[in-house]
Structures are given as C-alpha cells and as structure tokens.
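User: Run a structure prediction on this.
Assistant: Running it now.
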Amino acid sequence: MVIPPEIANFISTLQKDLGIFFSREDFERAIVLQALTHDIALVIYFEENAARINMGERRTFHIDLDQILNDPYKIRARICSLLGRGQVIYGRQTIVARIDKGVALAFLKENHLQPAIPGKYRYGLFDKGELVSVAIFSGGRRMREQTTSNYRSFELIRFCHKAGYRVVGGLSKLLKAFIKDFHPNDIMTYVDRDWAQVSNLHTLGFEVQGNTSPQAFWIVDKERHHVTGVEHLVQLQQTYSTGYLSHNSGSTKLVLRL
C-alpha cells in the first residue's frame, strides 16, 4: 500500500516523539503499526467503512485517515500523553478555578480531538498562571429510575490537558472541586473506545455501565459529519457526493456514584 506523504511524515515524527520504532503491516483498508518494545498498536484506516481490526490484548489506538490529515499534531500529542510522555505537572501544585465559556472553548479547540462544547459548568487547573487542564460538566439531570426526588446526575462532557503536558492527579482535583460546589449524586461520562478499550477511570471510582454502539460519520475531505440516521445519511450523500462512510468503535459509559 502506498500511503500519503502526510501519513509517512506523521509516523516518522511520532516515532521520534516516542523514541520507539513501529513495524508495519498492510491490510486491505488499513495499516497496522506495532511497537516492538511496547505492547501497543496503532491502526490507521484508509478506506470507506473499514471495519475496526481486533488486536487482541495489545493496547490499540484506532485512528481514521481524515483525523490525521486534519490535525496530526493533536493526534501525536494525544498518543504521547497516553503513553506517559510530556512535561509532568502534579495536580497538588495547581490551582483549580471556574473558567468562562470563551476560555474553555479556546482551550478545547486547541487541545481536544472532539468538537469544543461549552457545557454549563467549566473548571480549569492553573500552573503558575497557565491553564493546563480543563473539565466541562453538564447541568444536573433528574433520573427517572431514582426514587429520591432530589437525585441529580451530571455528565463530565469534556476533559483534556494542554498538549505536551501530563497533569498527574489533575482530573481527581477537578472532580473534587465540582463535587464540593454542586453535591451531585453521580457523575457519568463516556470514554471513546477508539482510544481506550479499558478505561483507567476506575481508579477514581467510576464503574462501567455498558457500551454504546459505534457512531457513523460521513467524511468529506478532512471534515466529518456525524450521521444521526438513515435519512440524514442520504441527505449527506446527496449534498457531498464525494464523501465516504466511516464508523468508530463506540464508547464505554462509566458512572461515579457519590
């Protein structure tokens, strides 16, 4: 398989960033990169509607071509952070504070892979005055299955560190600040299974509540449109005839009960 030069450059730069070498295996619709000295694999999908490849027990990152073409720096930074690279900051050294919508959105656009969402409540961690982590929460929701009338559930919608940094204990500190302010009965969140087949949020008390189905996207150049149903897909196909269909691995739902 002849891969685009942008992907070749991405792989070369990632290997330098990580200080490891990936072996390469070509499949019909994807290439698989495996680290010889680390139990990890990176799968890059090239073709329309390519099925996710099962790499067994290896820790696997599933990435679509459009994501790398759109923002290779964010992808590399995410991989490096997940593999323990980057400048380390300890949460106990930071200051937690509420942040406004504009600051939160700008930070997410610069550092998060998914679209920036303002949420309702926004918290940040500051190290020597620099914003290094952000957590975005929804408003409180009443749960029908709960018998307690004042039971409220909140969602952790977005969380990320500044690219190139790892804030050890950062999410724990952000959660504690939010819990102190709003006293939720539970906090739920979703973890993208393209990036984490097994979430480390269980160390903070989160419990798995099930998996969501894979999401569909209509890819046009480097832009992805979330498909909400069959009729929507037909509309996208008619509007962007040169696009193609892609699916992710779905998400894992986790809940922290308080």
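Residues 192-258 form one domain.
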